[in-house]
UniProtKB/TrEMBL annotation:
Keywords: Iron, Metal-binding, Oxidoreductase. It comes from Amorphotheca resinae ATCC 22711. GO terms for molecular function: metal ion binding; oxidoreductase activity. The keyword Electron transport does not apply. GO terms for biological process: small molecule biosynthetic process. It holds the Pfam family DIOX_N. This is Fe2OG dioxygenase domain-containing protein. PANTHER family: FI07970P-RELATED (PTHR10209:SF881), OXIDOREDUCTASE, 2OG-FE II OXYGENASE FAMILY PROTEIN (PTHR10209).
């Protein structure tokens, strides 16, 4: 619904054009979001079954959702909700620190990498009048925290605030089960692409597995003038988002309508990201999404970004290319693509 505030005009019901940071230009019908049931809820308990047919049945649901909308909820994922609760507590603790303290781990201190603190109202992803009303802290894969790591001594690249006991431990307490879940889900994605279940195993031994906590104060400006996080696509293969109960995540459907991805208790939202879109030659949709926090409350979320080993080539998946459907994207390594996107996102922040 359109909502007028004292600070800005009402939202536009007219077509809009924006340029995304993955280089694509996007036209959509209206900036006003709607309630719709286009985002499926998939029970993924079958991924842990010993029976191949159970795993394949989940894979077919994921195939349909990844192709049609690029977004789905997963339920019965098996991860204890207490880990997310700890992460949200740690997020509240970190974001309530004085800004000078948070700036000790400013992301600008680590060139080429997407780790550390991204300050409030620092940039606007879609050149909206007001800068995006959110702040974030990102951390990266750590071999020491990966039970299946090949080399546990390999150093991590994250930066951590001093004097915040339990912060790092609380965040990895959730990152590690998500990492194991994402590895399993990658096998299901292989099935979804009609490949052998182990087709991507080599790609995920040393994955790109960054995570972030985000804080969105309630916004008063209209969605035409400000977003919590502006319209964008994610860089990697897929993202697993844990959101609190404040709502605000919105997804752009293929027909150009903003759809609310309202919180579903106990679920994660999984969305396809750009590397998977490239590798599947657009069979999977890397869906544009944004956050607009009109709840009147603080919103917290914790996305986990899952991508392939930086050394590996992002070659097109054989079941997604043919003579009549040739590869659309140049092949590069996962690391080259990551650095290109991380630097671009960070430049946009300056
Ligand atoms: O906060 C959310 O729900 C989503 C955040 C997001 O899209 C991102 O950080 O890429
Ligand atoms: Fe995102």
């Amino acid at each position: 619904m359109s909502q007028t505030t004292q600070t800005t005009q009402a939202e536009t019901a007219e077509p809009i054009t924006i340029r995304l940071s993955n280089g694509k230009t996007l036209n959509f019908a209206s900036n006003i979001s709607q309630e719709a049931d286009e985002i499926p809820i998939i029970d993924v308990s079958g991924i842990y079954s010993d029976k191949f047919e159970d795993r394949q049945a989940v894979a077919e649901k994921i195939r349909e959702a990844s192709h049609r909308i690029g977004f789905f909820y997963v339920i019965n994922h098996g991860i204890d909700p207490k880990h997310a609760e700890v992460v949200f507590e740690q997020a509240k603790r970190f974001f309530s620190l004085p800004v000078e303290k948070k700036m000790e781990v400013y992301t600008g201190l680590v060139p080429n990498e997407f780790v550390g603190y991204h300050p409030m109202e620092h940039y606007s992803r879609t050149a909206a009048k007001q800068k995006d009303l959110s702040e974030a802290f990102n951390w990266a894969y750590s071999a020491a925290e990966d039970p299946e790591a090949i080399d546990k001594d390999e150093p991590g690249i994250s930066i951590w605030p001093s004097d915040l006991d339990g912060f790092r431990e609380g965040l990895y307490g959730y990152h590690t089960p998500l990492l194991q879940f994402a590895r399993k889900l990658t096998q299901i994605f292989a099935l979804a692409l009609h490949l052998p279940e182990n087709a991507f195993d080599e790609y995920t031994k040393k994955p790109e597995a960054g995570m972030r906590i985000l804080h969105y104060p309630p916004q008063e400006h209209s969605v035409d003038d400000q977003n919590g996080i502006g319209a964008h696509t994610d860089f990697e293969c897929f993202t697993i988002v844990t959101q609190d109960d404040s709502a605000g995540l919105e997804v752009l459907s293929k027909s150009g309508t903003w759809i609310k991805a309202n919180p579903v208790p106990g679920s994660f939202v999984v969305n396809i990201a750009d590397c998977f879109m490239r590798q599947t030659n657009d069979f999977f949709v890397s869906t544009v999404h944004r956050v607009v926090n009109k709840s009147g409350r603080e919103r917290y979320s914790a996305p986990f970004f899952w991508g392939f080993d930086r050394k590996m080539l992002l070659e097109p998946v054989p079941t997604c290319v043919s003579e009549t459907n040739p590869a659309k994207y140049p092949v590069m390594t996962a690391g080259e693509y990551y650095k290109f996107r991380a630097n671009k996102a960070k430049d946009d922040e300056l």
